[in-house]
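Practice problem: predict the structure.
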Amino acid sequence: HYLAAFATEYVISTNIAAKGGDPNLFNL
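Answer:
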């Protein structure tokens, strides 16, 4: 389950970065 959560946060951070946000917000 940890890997699934990590993958989800990675996708979210990638989406934020694509929108011009700060990808570091979701770094673990």
